[in-house]
Amino acid sequence: MPLLLSSTLAQTSRNQHCLLLQSSTAQSCLPVLRAIVKRASERTRESTILFCFLYPPSSFLDPSRIQADHIRVVDRTANVPGYDDAFEVEKDWVAALKSQILDTVRSAPQGPLSVVIDSVDTLLSDVASLAETTQLLSEILGVVRSRGGSSRLAIHALAPCPLIPILTQTRFSPSLTHITAHPSALLTHLSTAYLTPPPPLSPPEKFWGVFIPIAERLYESEKLVFGQDGEGSGPQEFAVEVLVRGGTDGSGRRRGVERVLEGWSPAGGGPCELRELENLKSLWAKKPVFEAQATADPTQNLSFNLNLTPEQQRSRAQVPLPYAHEGKHTETAQTPAAILYDPDSADDLDDDDPDEDLDI
C-alpha cells in the first residue's frame, strides 16, 4: 500500500485544494514543505507561486529554479513592519500587502496553480488582524479552487497559531490535508511511559486516544527534545501525522476522514514507514501489546496449580448437580402454565364479591 504522505507530495488526489503543514518549536515541517515546493516546481505545465515570509527562497529552491518561467517567488522576508522604510512611506501598508498578494495570485497564467505560503503566522503578524488574514486566505483558496485539477494552496503554520483552528474547520475548506510533524522522541516516550507504541504494535483506538491529547500539549514535546535528556533539534528523523478529510483518491472514490502516522527520513529520501526510522527500531523489536495480552496465561508463575488433569476433569463431569426439583418428572411442554399461590396467614380471602353493594 503506498504511503499517504507520498501520494500527498505527488498530488495524486483530486479536489484536495487545501494543504496545511504544521510545525512546532520541537519539530519543524520544513523538509516536507521543501519537498512539496520542489515537486510543484518540476511540473512545468503548472504555475507555482511561492510567498516567503519566514524562510528565504533559497531554503526551498535552487537559484536556477527561481528564475523559471512557471515559478514566481515573492520574497517578503526583509519587509518587517516598523523596520522597513517602505512601510513608513505607504499610508495603508496592510491594504497594499493584501492587494499585492491577491493580484499576484489572480494574474497567474491560466491552468493548474500551486500557491505556497510560508508562513501564515508571520503573515498574520504583518496584517495584525485575524479576521482580515482569514478573509485573505479564503480569497486565495477561492482562486486556487477555480483553477481545478491539481491546483492547491499549501499553508505552513508554526504552532501555536490562532489560525490553525480556523483553517482546519470545514467552513474554511470541506476537504483538507493536514500534515503535522512530531519528534520521534514523543513516540518513544509514549511507548515507555504509557505502554502505548504506535500501530500495529498497539490497537489504533488505544494509541490515538493517548497520542492526540499529549501531542496537542506542545510543552510535552519541547521537554522531550530540549530537556535535560533531550536529543535537541536538527535535520534528524521525525514522525509525520497525516490527516485527510474529504476529496477523492487516485481511483476517483470519495474519501471520508483518514489519519495515519508515517515517518520522514533524510537518509531515505523523505517519506518512509515508521519501522524504517533508526530512532524507533527498538520499538519494533518488541511484540505487539494486544497480541501479548491475548496469549498471556493468567495461571502462569503461581505458587499453586489451578489446572486439572484429564482424570480430574472426567471425575468432575460425573458429579450430579444439586437441582431443586431433582427426581421429579415434569413435562413442561405438555403441562399448561399456572400460578400457584400459598396464602399467608394475614391474607383476608373472601369468596364474596366486595363490590356487591355497588349499583353498577
From TrEMBL:
Chain intervals for the UniProt region annotation (Disordered): 326-360
Any GO CC annotation of this UniProt entry: nucleus
Annotated Pfam families: Elong_Iki1
Entry keywords, A to Z: Cytoplasm, Nucleus, tRNA processing
Pathway note: tRNA modification; 5-methoxycarbonylmethyl-2-thiouridine-tRNA biosynthesis
Subcellular location: Cytoplasm; Nucleus
Annotated Acidic residues bias: 344-360
Single GO biological process annotation from the record: tRNA wobble uridine modification
Gene Ontology terms, MF aspect: tRNA binding
Family: Belongs to the ELP5 family.
Protein name: Elongator complex protein 5
Annotated source species: Polyporus arcularius HHB13444
